[in-house]
Write a structure and sequence with these properties.
The chain has 11 helices and 8 strands. By secondary structure, it is α/β, with parallel strands linked by helices. The protein has a single domain, classed as Ureohydrolase domain (Arginase, Chain A, 3-Layer(aba) Sandwich). α8 crosses α9 and α9 packs parallel to α10. The model has no long low-confidence stretch (mean pLDDT about 95). The structure holds manganese (II) ion. The site of manganese (II) ion has 5 residues, from loops. Manganese (II) ion binds next to loops.
């Protein structure tokens, strides 16, 4: 898939998937970090499609194993349709979050678009966490800890069925990067699924250039392109403290950028999520600023 010169930005002001409030303000914080003009300066044709409709937050979650499932399901179904429509117009969807549960919608939209052309996609999940719990294994019932499991066809049938039944991506084309915090049951789910996991140990040992090259290779193998779902908590809290579940020992500023620069060089990027930016936890909007910068790198901004 050639590098798209046309980009559509979608906001998903959702935080019902997380335990902390505030990620709903992420899309506007990233916009305020001058994302749109910065992308235009790269010579891209940029459209801001505004925000996807999010149902009102009930005062209390009804289902403790799947908190706010009806609302998240509805938001993800709308996002799936939007991402699909953007791809159909020959544009690259950039989804701003919002908590990571939204990826059940965005990745499903990318998957459906290519499935209709009898093609499959790869998925690179950049995150401190595995997001691989199912409703049965989740300690919290927060759906932002479960999106990858549902995209691989596990867990709740309705959430796994957004945009169509079955897994949205093959395990052999799914790669996790930046991982450093997994629940015991997530480890089991990840091992049984067969996805590739590059933890911080591999980043430390082999370097981000090597890890990114392997990730891109797996995600591109016999696919039409890949979706990158970047949780800002993959980056170290010293450069990205404005997020709900910070975890030390993360990607440096340059490792985060290098990953995105190598994604851009691959010319295989089909869609991008930038999620879990929480302005209530941020200082001087700097995490939203990093998110904006990383999107620019993924879409072709070069140092030289
Ligand atoms: Mn995540």
């Amino acid at each position: 898939m050639p590098a798209a010169r046309k980009v559509s930005v979608l906001g998903v002001p959702l935080d019902m998937g997380a335990s902390k409030l505030g990620a709903a303000g992420g899309p506007d914080a990233i916009r305020r970090a001058e994302l749109i003009p910065a992308l235009e300066r790269l010579g891209l044709d940029v459209e801001d499609r505004g925000d996807v409709d999010i149902p009102d937050r009930p005062s209390k979650a009804k289902n403790a194993k799947l908190r706010f499932k009806p609302q998240i399901l509805e938001a993800c179904a709308s996002l799936c349709d939007e991402v699909h429509a953007v791809l159909k117009e020959g544009r690259l969807p950039v989804t701003l979050g919002g908590d990571h549960s939204l990826a059940m919608g965005s990745v499903s939209g990318t998957s459906r678009f290519f499935a209709q052309k009898k093609q499959s996609i790869g998925l690179i999940w950049v995150d401190a966490h595995g997001d691989m719990n199912t409703p049965e294994t989740s300690p919290s019932g927060n759906i932002h800890g479960m999106p990858l499991a549902h995209l691989l066809g596990l867990g709740d049938r309705a959430l796994a069925g957004i945009g169509g039944r079955g897994p949205k991506v093959k395990a052999r084309n799914t790669v996790l990067v930046g991982i450093r915090d997994l629940d015991a049951s997530e480890k089991k789910n990840l091992r049984e699924s067969g996805v590739a996991v590059f933890t911080m140990k591999e980043v430390d040992r082999y370097g981000m250039a090597w890890v990114a090259a392997r990730a891109i290779e797996f995600a591109s193998d016999q696919t039409a392109g890949f979706h990158v779902s970047f949780d800002i908590d993959a980056a170290d809290p010293s450069v990205a403290q404005g997020t709900g579940t910070p975890m030390r020992g993360g990607l440096t500023y340059r490792e985060s950028h290098l990953f995105m620069e190598l994604v851009a060089d691959s010319e295989m990027l089909a869609a991008l999520d930038m999620v879990e930016i929480n302005p209530l936890e941020d200082v001087h909007n700097q995490t939203a600023g990093l998110a904006s910068e990383l999107i620019q790198s993924a879409l072709g901004k070069r140092i030289f």
